Amino acid sequence: MDECAAITAGNTRGIAVEPPEARQQPSPQNAIGVSDGVFALGGGESRVHSDFELNFYARGEALIERLNRNGRASGASIRSGHGLRLLPLMAATFFMVSGGPYGIEDILTAGYRTGLILLVALPLVWSFPTALMIGELASALPEEGGFYVWVRRALGPFWGYQEAWLSLAASIFDMAIYPTLFVLYLGRLAPAWTAGWHGIAWELALIAICCVWNLLGAPAVGDGSLGLSALLLSPFAVLVMAAAWHGAHRHAGVGGPASTGSANGATLATAVLVALWNYMGWDNASTVAREVDRPQRNYPRAMLLCALLVMLTYVVPLAAAAWAGIPAAQFTTGSWTNVADTVAGKWLGVAIVAGGTLTALGMFNALTMSYARLPMALAEDGLLPGVLARRNRRGVPWVAVLACAAAWALALGFSFERLISLDLILYGASLILEFLALVVLRVREPHLERPFRAGSLLTVCLMGAAPSALIVGAAWAARGERMAGMSALLFGALIAGAGPLFFWLSKVLWSRPRPLPVAAD
Predict the structure, then answer these.
(1) 396 contacts 217 by C-beta, under 8 angstroms
(2) Rounded-to-integer distance, Cα 186 and Cα 68, Å
(3) How far is 193 from 1, CA to CA, in rounded Å?
């Protein structure tokens, strides 16, 4: 019992290690079950364990021993009250998904009417189903690695690896966008600052600042996100009020809002892609679950409240711009500065530019916190070099943070539109796996404690239908984009297809089977 208690106290990855002879006995279910607070993988006599799976169990013993040695007992961060609280978690999620109205300007290629309809309708079929799925899984399985752990538990190590591979591959292209936006807005404030090599220097500086910030720990990132979100949204609150006043005087007795415009097939496809990209990333907050205060309570609340907040931060400023008579054709990436100049003056334009730099900083910073936990989790499971699991005294996987930052720096320079297309393809594939994991866990583990439930089994089966259809449609719409001399769709498929190869390489390079004890005669 002492050994069992030690395993229970040290289990931060949801893994308990049984002796080989115990694993040969029948288990009540062919899934990961929970007994007396200890997680175990059952399979019965009919289950054939590969060398990799046996090594996966064996590595768990060493991992639990190492975690106990480092003083990171299960649930400590959850019960201590020192983790990410509700508001900082919401703020970090806000930056992982949105970061404010910056970046949605290109949706108006389809006109105000179509753009606003998309921004109101998409949360109903995209954001809220995803938020419900994450709320249930994150509250039931609040483990470091988040969605990687969910898929691994539901579908096995192979598919868990594919989930992590798709997410990390998407991060290479996703994270290159934010330094680009930072330089774009900074260049509007002072063009000389970003001319020539200065632009690349600013992008690299942003990456370095976020690395240092993340080394201070998840609570520092969450608290910083809360302050940054208040600063960047303040100019938009002023813009909305100024646009309402401007529009009221402009149309007094005679007119109405700006022409809503119309959309053709090409502009509608672009608008849908931009809208989807601005509403994706809800699952990123799940990877730091062990650093969240009371995740069973705070994750569902943060996801649903943040989904509503993000929609409002998009819809309200665009509706105000339409009311003020700003032509939709005027909008391109970075045009919020011009809108502010028109309705209030140069001073508000400067504030909007400053907010644009803050949103790029906040998004890159929050996403660094999220993505860096994936290579750490893979390393702890023996699927990447063990050095990536090293932490500093604040529990931050500092080697993984630096490795991810180096990879993201190499992706700088791609065009904004191409990055969106490829990012959607890769992220979409990983999201489909998460919805599958939700359904599989409902079927295989009906008795798993779920503090928050997204609905009945039929509901969760239907929840993933609309997001999956949107992902397939976005991938098809991106077929005309070109990357590396081929279509973005083919390029994305090649990256996704490399996942099984890298899984095999990971087993060969970093999985070291230990001899199992021989039963006594």
Answers:
(1) yes
(2) 46
(3) 65
Which of 94, 348, 369, 362 is CA-nearest to residue 228?
362
**d(C-alpha 282, C-alpha 435), whole Å:** 13
Q: What amino acid is encoded at 3 in this protein?
A: E
The helix (run of H) or strand (run of E) holding residue 40 is: strand 38-41
Report DSSP letters for 399-449, one per residue. HHHHHHHHHHHHTTT--HHHHHHHHHHHHHHHHHHHHHHHHHHHHH-TTS-
Dist CA 391 CA 387 (whole Å) = 9
Instruction: Report helix angle 465-477 to 488-510, nearest 10.
Output: 110
Q: Hey, what are 29's tokens? A: 């279910």
Cα dihedral 201, 203, 207, 210 sign: positive
Q: Write down the residue that tokens 């632009």 correspond to.
A: 199
Count other Cβ atoms within 10 Å, centred on residue 254: 6
d(C-alpha 340, C-alpha 360), whole Å? 19
DSSP state of 35: E
| 278/271 Cα distance (integer angstroms) | 11
Task: Look at the block and give the residue holding tokens 């630096």.
Answer: 402
Name the β-bridge partners of 292: 84
On the 0-12 / 13-18 / 19+ scale of CB atoms within 10 A, 312 is exposed
442 or 35: which leads in pLDDT: 442
* Partners of residue 32 on adjacent β-strands: 41
Residue 423 amino acid letter: D
Cβ atoms of residues 334 and 184 within 8 Å: yes
Q: How far apart are CA 165 and CA 494, in angstroms?
A: 12
For 128-157, write each residue's pLDDT tens digit.
999 999 999 999 999 999 999 999 999 999
Measured distance CA(314)–CA(319) in Å, rounded: 9
Backbone angles phi, psi at 487, to 5 degrees: -70, 150
Q: Token pair of 116, please?
A: 């606003």
Both tokens of 474, joined, read 């976005």
Handedness of CA 15, 501, 465, 171 (dihedral sign): positive
Q: What is the pLDDT of residues 222-273, one digit of tens each?
A: 999 999 999 999 999 999 999 999 888 776 554 455 555 555 566 787 888 8
> To the nearest 10°, the Cα dihedral for 11, 13, 14, 19?
-70
- Give the tokens for residue 441: 């866990």
Angle, nearest 10°, between helix axes 157-174 and 398-410?
Answer: 50
pTM, 2 dp? 0.80
* Angle, in degrees to the nearest 10, between helices 157-174 and 488-510: 130
Selection from 286, 288, 366 nearest residue 83 by Cα: 288
Apex 341 CA angle, 340 and 344, nearest 5: 70
Question: How many residues can be counted in the chain?
Answer: 521
CA distance 127 to 311: 9
Contacts of 465 (CB under 8 A, 6+ apart): none
